[in-house]
Amino acid sequence: MLEMKRLRLLWELSTRGTVAAVAEALRYTPSAVSQQLALLEREAGVPLLRKAGRRLEFTAAGESLVREVEGLLNGLERAEAMLHSAGDEITGTIRVASFQTAVLALFPAALRHLRETAPHLRVELVQYEPGAALSETWARSFDLVVAEQYPHHATRHIPGLDRVPLTTDRIQLAVPPLGSGVAEFDRVESITDAAGLPWVMEPQGAATRHWAEQACRLAGFEPDVRFETADLQAHVRLIETGNAVALLPSLVHTSTPRVRLLELEGAPRRTLFTAAREASQGHPAISAVRDALDVVVREAEAARLTSSTP
């Protein structure tokens, strides 16, 4: 009889590529992973892996077994969702990955809502880069991810993950407040006026960085990126102290903006969505977190409409 925990390790190896990556993801030692895979081969009675230099490759039998294991894992997840749905209370633990602005702007209120609607549910929240979080959710490191997509910059679609829209978020040019002491900043009224000024952006490789650079290039200039950080609160701090300009989504400003915000041509908006494995569809914990986020978004929109009404 093949042991399910060892089959899971084989599937993880096919997903992550190396024994070291599997060990890191599952908090094992590499030697423990190797030993369990060797035991699985003995149980199977046929070679599942072969060495190719310093890496392991799958044999034909190993590849076939991995495909079967994928189905087994999905089946177990569907069974778990069914059992949890049969209960009277929402219990257990759900691991959620989210990018920084959603962690700051949405989750404090969502968690408060969950304390009232699902008091026995344990929510573990990890700040994670959206693209990597989608992959890790597919790989079963997380149960749910809150991710983002910038205009004309499609986020990777991963088979086996659903995608549920959450809200949209206006993107604006953020500049230091008037009277910052730097006359060049005070004269900025549009993105074209920001040519030649110091910019703060996220590191290379981030979707937000690519989008921001393209927005500057479409405006006719190459941005002078002097500051790089993935922390958007650091962006705000650099801007409000008169050191930089940036393109920021409005969710960054969870309270009264401390910077001057200018509209961009075409009023671009990023899309926020949640994603979970399709095999977990109907799991009450995932539904509860999604419902809580929806409540927070609706309340924020109602508050915004109220504040804008004369």
CATH architecture of the largest domain: 3-Layer(aba) Sandwich
Distance between the termini: 71 Å
Mean pLDDT, to the nearest integer, reads 90
Largest sheet: 7 strands, mixed
> Which runs of at least 5 residues are low in confidence (pLDDT < 50)?
none
Structural class: alpha/beta
Strand content: 15-25%
Number of helices: 11
Number of domains: 3
Q: Give the name of the CATH superfamily of the largest domain.
A: Periplasmic binding protein-like II
Helix and strand run: HHHEEHEHHEHEEHEHEHEEEH
- Cα radius of gyration in angstroms: 23 Å
- What is the highest CATH level, the class of the largest domain? Alpha Beta
Shape: globular
The overall strand count is: 11
Helical content stands at 40-55%
CATH topology of the largest domain: D-Maltodextrin-Binding Protein, domain 2
Protein name: LysR family transcriptional regulator
Keywords: DNA-binding, Transcription, Transcription regulation
Organism: Gulosibacter sediminis
Domain HTH lysR-type: 2-59
Describe this structure in words.
This protein has 310 residues and is α/β, with parallel strands linked by helices. The protein folds into three domains: 80 residues, Winged helix-like DNA-binding domain superfamily/Winged helix DNA-binding domain (Arc Repressor Mutant, subunit A); 115 residues, Periplasmic binding protein-like II (D-Maltodextrin-Binding Protein, domain 2, 3-Layer(aba) Sandwich), CATH 3.40.190.10; 101 residues, D-Maltodextrin-Binding Protein, domain 2, CATH 3.40.190.290. It is 45% helix and 20% strand. The chain has eleven helices and eleven strands. Strands 3, 4, 5, 6, 9, 10 and 11 form a seven-stranded mixed beta sheet that branches. Helix 9 links the parallel strand 7 and strand 8. Helix 6 crosses helix 11. The protein is globular, with a radius of gyration of 23 Å. It starts with a helix and ends with a helix. The relative contact order is 0.14. It comes from Gulosibacter sediminis. InterPro entries: LysR_HTH_N (IPR000847), LysR_subst-bd (IPR005119), WH-like_DNA-bd_sf (IPR036388), WH_DNA-bd_sf (IPR036390). Keywords: DNA-binding, Transcription, Transcription regulation. This is LysR family transcriptional regulator. Pfam families: HTH_1, LysR_substrate.
